Structure formats: C-alpha cells, structure tokens
Prior knowledge:
The complex is a heterodimer of chains A (162) and B (152).
Chain A: E1 14-21, H1 24-34, H2 43-48, H3 58-82, E2 95-101, E3 110-122, E4 129-139, E5 145-156
Antiparallel strand pairs in A: 1-3, 2-5, 3-4, 4-5
Chain B: E1 17-19, E2 23-24, H1 27-37, H2 41-44, H3 46-50, H4 61-75, E3 87-93, E4 102-114, E5 121-132, E6 137-148
Antiparallel strand pairs in B: 1-4, 2-4, 3-6, 4-5, 5-6
Amino acid sequence: MIGLYLDELEIGRIIPLGSHHFTRDAIVDFARTYDPQPFHLDEEAGRRGPFGVLSASGWHTAAGWMKCYVATNQAAEAKLRAAGKTPAPLGPSPGFENLVWHKPVKPGDTITYTLTVTGKRALASRPGWGLLFSHSTGVNQDGDEVFAFDGKVMTPVRPSSG
Amino acid sequence: MTATELLHYEDFHEGQVLPFGTYHLTKDEVIAYAREFDPQPFHLDEEAARHSVLKGLSASGWQSSAILVRLAVDAYANRSAALGSKGFDEAKWLKPVYAGETLTGRVTILSKRRSASKPGIGVMKCLFELLNSAGDKKIEMTGVQFMKLRQP
C-alpha cells in the first residue's frame, strides 16, 4: 500500500484517500447497471423508500472508495519512482469485513475517505507476501460518517538484500 | 406488479435458497468499470493482466460484488417489498472473475427476525454466492436484507 512494504506500514498510520463527488446522473447510471432498486433510480421512489431520499447504491459508495484508494496509491508510487525508489506493488484483496452503510449518500454529496492501518501478518502460504488489515471510513460534507469497512490487502515483504 | 403480489417477509423462510439468473460479463464492461473506479493494470489491459498475479483480465472485486447484487435485485429484491440493506458482515473474493465469463448465483436465507426497533420490518441475514457456469465459486458475501412485513 502507498508503495510501501509490509514492514514499513506501521499500525495506526492514517492515510487520507481524498474525496468523491456523487452527482444525480452518476447515482442513477450506476444503479441502472448494478442495483436497479426504485429508491436508487428516481426521486419520488426515493422519498417513499426506506431512506426517504434518492440515494446512491451502497456499492457505488464503495466504488468511490476504491477510486480514491487507487488514485492515492498511484500518486504515492509515482512520487517514490520520481525519487529513484522502487515502490512495492499493490496486491489483490481477498475480501472485506464489517461493511456498514450508516446513512444514505444523496445527489450532490461529497464523500471523503480515510484509511487507518489496523494490523498485519506474514502469509505462511505465500512466502514474500503478507496481509495488511485496515479500517476505512467515508464522511460526507456535513461531517457525518456514511460508510465504513475493514479491508485487507496482500502486501509484499521487502526483499532481503542478501 | 401490485403491492399485494410482492413477496414479503412472511414469504421467506430459514434455509430457503433462491437461484439467480445469469450475467455475461464482457471485456468492455470490465475495462469501463476499471477506468472509472479501479484503474489497476490487471483490470484494464489484457497483456498486463496475463503477467499479473491474477493471470488474466479480471473484474474489480467491487464490480464482481456489484454484479452479484444485480443478480439478487433481478431474482428477488425487485419482486419483493425489499427495503435495502445496512451492510455486510463479510465478503470473500475467492477467485478472480474473468472477462468473458457468464456468472450466476444464489441467496440462502440464514436467519430471519422481526425488527425490535422498527415495527413492520423484518431483518433477514443472507448468504450471497457468485459462481461461473463451470460451478467455480467466486464470491461469498453475508449481509442483511430488510424486508417489509405483509401483516405488521
């Protein structure tokens, strides 16, 4: 993550991921493809629906996190390369836990995502790799937390020079 | 479909398995999603993907989860008095979902109860599974589905 190896990512480190703006058109487009429930497609159905407002699919809110996460990683990797260093590659993720949508994301909302490193361990099954654990949140422009989950990602261990 | 024809909380039971339809995932859709939300080389470019740890052009895990949701919406959520979800306890991205695969899945109702705080609403804990046409399991997700009661 952010071009760093497992041993360089200390537990408790906070990584700001940036923000994603949700327009009405983007909310409806995403929902048409992946989550076409009435309350994600139409204002009137949104008002009558469980959230009382036209709201983004929770999977759109998660996709906004991924967009910010990849951009943050790629910027950090470019910075390391510019300094003549080789960034650690971002590995795949085996999944997530404790994903919560606390509040609806509405048209016009801007969600700011933040990741905190919460744990790490080497992978006995994959020499040279470990798992990095994290907690991420999404907070809207009013300061309300709307989204959170615990992530994990495969992260390389720094190759020994010997 | 009128409100009375919709499935309600009473129509679901523990242990029930609802099969999903199919979703053909094209290469263009993998790349379009990746460009917008997950622009890593192994989701964008076939050549880069072949040399990656995933060994082929594969969908973002979040896209694969979203496809599982689409299958669930078509199979039961939009035929029922579904009231959305609060979250997912766990998701396992077991295997990459590759461009060109035809996907299907199922939901299993693990447990159900009436909400103590919200009268008229039921809470169903569900296991969602995504598979390809060869039967390889790609995703397991466990989450909550809120469902209106027919008779509160």
